[in-house]
Design a protein that fits this description.
By secondary structure, this protein is of the alpha+beta class. The chain is built from one helix and five strands, in the order E-E-E-E-E-H. It has one domain. It has a five-stranded antiparallel β-sheet with strand order 1-2-3-4-5.
């Protein structure tokens, strides 16, 4: 299994279809920003982990981590 690429679509556990908008690496973690296809204001951030050739999308640890990573995505998208 390979890492998700920007523009790739998938359905998450909430049964909603999302598109990968952006990716960043911070503190040796790969973060993926998803946008709901039906409601672009609905965004989700997950940590991407590849283990034994399997792709896992994990939630963030806490609100501080979410805020820190969201700022990185905002900075990236502005450039």
């Amino acid at each position: 299994m390979k890492s998700l690429e920007v523009g790739e679509m998938l359905t998450l556990d909430d049964e909603i279809e999302y598109v990968v908008m952006s990716r960043v690496n911070n503190n040796d973690k790969d973060y993926v920003l998803f946008s709901n296809l039906d409601n672009p204001e609905d965004i989700v951030i997950r940590i991407e982990e590849l283990e034994n050739n399997e792709l896992y999308l994990c939630g963030l640890e806490d609100e501080h981590e979410f805020d820190e990573v969201l700022k990185l995505f905002e900075k990236q998208l502005k450039n």
